[in-house]
Amino acid sequence: MRAMIYRPRQRQVTSAGWNMAREERQIAVNKKARHDYFIDEVFEAGLALTGTEVKSLRERGCNLRESYAYVKRGEVFIHGMHISPYSHGNRFNVDPDRDRKLLLHKQEIRYLIGKTRERGNTLVPMRLYFNRDNRVKIEIGLARGKKQYDKRATIAERDQNRDMQRALRDRQKDG
């Protein structure tokens, strides 16, 4: 009689499979940031959140408008970011508008302290997303404020590029 070799059954991999490579899932984008500021550099940071806040973010309950980050006692916090209370959270829900701690490396924090002390620089949240490991990440931009004429110039440049693309597309259709 032949000896039986135990081989565990292979799991079938589906699109919602357990070992598929995940993609980044966007939660919220601050579209006004690029309109109101010149973005010099972008940093990726983690967020210190509670469980119900993460569950609420999975339901896309977040708003980045009018929010900004600041450095206090060697730590970076985000102010004004609204995370809606989780629908099934009951007493575990926290204040939706509380300041939340950003998780950055010490060298990055020191760099940001130096840059934000310069006149006109501020930290603006750009987008909030789940990374490949299902961790909540935020992109913050080191930004300088735009003047009104800068905003108009940006809009005019965007319109000009759009018209040029449209003309090229029409030319290729006809030719």
Continuous helix count: 4
Beta-strand fraction estimate: 25-35%
Query: Portion of residues in helices?
Result: 25-40%
Instruction: List SSEs in N-to-C order.
Output: EHEHEEEEEHEEH
Query: Ends: how far apart?
Result: 77 Å
Report the C-alpha radius of gyration, rounded: 23 Å
Side-by-side strand order of the widest sheet:
1-8-9-2-7-5-4
- The CATH architecture of the domain at 25-145 comes to Beta Barrel
In total, how many beta strands? 9
CATH class of the domain at 25-145: Mainly Beta
- Morphology: globular
Structural topology:
Blueprint: E1 25-29, H1 31-36, E2 37-47, H2 51-58, E3 62-63, E4 68-72, E5 75-79, E6 82-83, E7 100-103, H3 106-117, E8 121-130, E9 136-145, H4 148-174
Antiparallel strand pairs: 1-8, 2-7, 2-9, 3-6, 4-5, 5-7, 8-9
Entry keywords:
175 residues; 7-stranded antiparallel β-sheet; 9 strands; Small Protein B, Chain: A; 30% helix; single chain
Account of the protein in words:
- This protein is an alpha+beta fold and 175 residues long.
- The protein has a domain at 25-145: Small protein B (Small Protein B, Chain: A, Beta Barrel).
- It has helices at 31-36, 51-58, 106-117, 148-174; strands at 25-29, 37-47, 62-63, 68-72, 75-79, 82-83, 100-103, 121-130, 136-145.
- Strands 1-8-9-2-7-5-4 form a 7-stranded antiparallel sheet.
- A hairpin with a 5-residue loop joins strand 8 and strand 9.
- The longest helix has 27 residues, at 148-174.
